[in-house]
From TrEMBL:
Name of the protein in its database record: CHAD domain-containing protein
Matches recorded under InterPro entries: CHAD_dom, CHAD_dom_sf
Region (Disordered): 117-136
Gene3D superfamilies: CHAD domain
SMART domains tied to this protein: CHAD
Residues annotated as domain CHAD: 10-326
């Protein structure tokens, strides 16, 4: 990690940390105001409602990540409690968006697969063109039913997530979180060490966050060519994504913006997460009792297609990762 700029080396930790947290708290409160304006059931899924929920999630994640990385400069009990509550809130708000995104991704993939040749995820049958034609026909028949099944399952899940989010936002627990963030917008509970120079207090935890990210990337499997559908590896990639995010927030606090070299890798890891979760949703739908063989077949092809997307995202990550020594290219 590059050393913070001159400004952060001439200021106290409080002068660097407190304004950033106050800014994120203000963003959270703006998102909350938008959410209250667009929280009616009729607004579910509208652009303004989505913007409000996204603003709340983004601010909550940045506050939570900052409390985690720079805990030593903050009042520790307060930081731990607020971080736990913000994690609960951002997780609750994220579910509705995740289900909607997953459904759109899967339906788009089904549409493309049913109108094209069989995906490369299925190896050649070796039985000639007639067998391939039969498989393509089966995919066309099953795709519509598979899409309807996925839409029922994920729309129900999204509706439940929306209800859970509304319930959470009306709860006393959320009001306590909102009150804590409102207080943060004007007063940041700091430890005595925050009065010391930023270079002494903030550099070390930021560098630790970067090192944890680098270690997680170094631990990633170097190549999936031997086991292309090994879903047991997903957790390692998700962990790398979370640690990259923490590093990005720390860099943002110290230098005023995320590290531009990590924009591409971060986007690749987001795509990886989306594709992995979509593949899991297709696999879960395929286990629905008493579905037609053509439907199960289409869901199997869809699962394979999304696992291909997982592998593609991993390849993009390796190509764009700026620390070449930390990950082996495929």
């Amino acid at each position: 990690m590059r050393r913070p700029d001159h400004q952060t080396t001439t200021l106290t930790a409080e002068a660097v940390l407190a304004p950033y947290l106050r800014e994120q708290a203000a963003s959270f409160l703006r998102g909350l105001r938008l959410q209250r304006e667009h929280s009616a059931p009729a607004d579910a899924g509208t652009q303004r409602a989505d913007e409000a929920a996204r603003a709340l999630r983004h601010a909550a994640r940045r506050i939570s990540g900052t409390l985690h990385t720079f805990r030593g400069a903050l009042e520790p009990v307060w930081a731990d409690q607020l971080r736990a509550e913000l994690a609960w809130l951002s997780g609750t708000l994220a579910r509705e968006h995740a289900y909607a995104t997953r459904l759109g991704r899967l339906l788009d993939a089904l549409h493309q697969l049913s109108g094209a040749s069989l995906p490369a995820a299925r190896p050649p049958s070796g039985e000639g063109a007639s067998e391939t034609d039969k498989e393509r026909a089966a995919l066309g028949v099953g795709a519509a039913r598979a899409g309807a099944l996925l839409e029922r399952r994920l729309t129900l899940a999204r509706t439940r997530a929306h209800s859970a989010a509304l319930q959470a936002l009306g709860s006393s627990r959320f009001h306590a979180v909102a009150d804590a963030v409102a207080l943060l917008a004007s007063e940041v509970p700091l430890s005595p060490s925050a009065a010391e120079p930023a270079g002494l207090v903030l550099h070390a935890p930021a560098e630790l966050a970067e090192q944890r990210m680098l270690d997680a990337v170094a631990a990633l499997p170097p190549d999936e060519a031997v086991e292309p559908y090994n879903e047991a590896h997903d957790a390692l990639w998700h962990q790398a994504r979370q640690l990259l995010r923490l590093h990005r927030y720390a860099h943002e606090l110290l230098r005023g913006a995320p590290d531009p070299a990590l924009v591409g890798p971060g986007h690749a890891l987001d795509l990886h997460r989306d594709a992995a979760e979509a593949a899991a949703a297709a696999s879960a739908a395929a286990r629905t009792p008493r579905i037609a063989p053509a439907t199960a077949y289409a869901l199997g092809v869809l699962h394979a297609d999304q696992r291909h997307e997982v592998e593609a995202a991993r390849g993009v990550f390796r190509e764009t990762w700026p620390h070449a020594a930390a990950v082996t290219a495929s």
